[in-house]
What does this fold into?
Amino acid sequence: MITIAIAIAAGAICLALGLTLYRLVVGPDATDRVLALDTLVIEAIALIVLIGIAYGTGMYFEAALLFAMVGFVTTVAFCKFLLRGNVIE
It folds into this structure.
């Protein structure tokens, strides 16, 4: 039963990844592209957690946490760059 739920969740996440990649490529503005990158990070974290559930190990959860921290920092840096033109003041 859990394998069916994992397969359905993986399919939904892959569909979301595809739609977000479309927004990343077609996005009319740079801010839309930054938001698409942030959404891609969240979807990748969800996929990593799903793999961790499938394999039953905690190593993937730690990797997802590290990926979340790096994704947050890069999103903030991109936003500061778009707003101010530089990242470091």
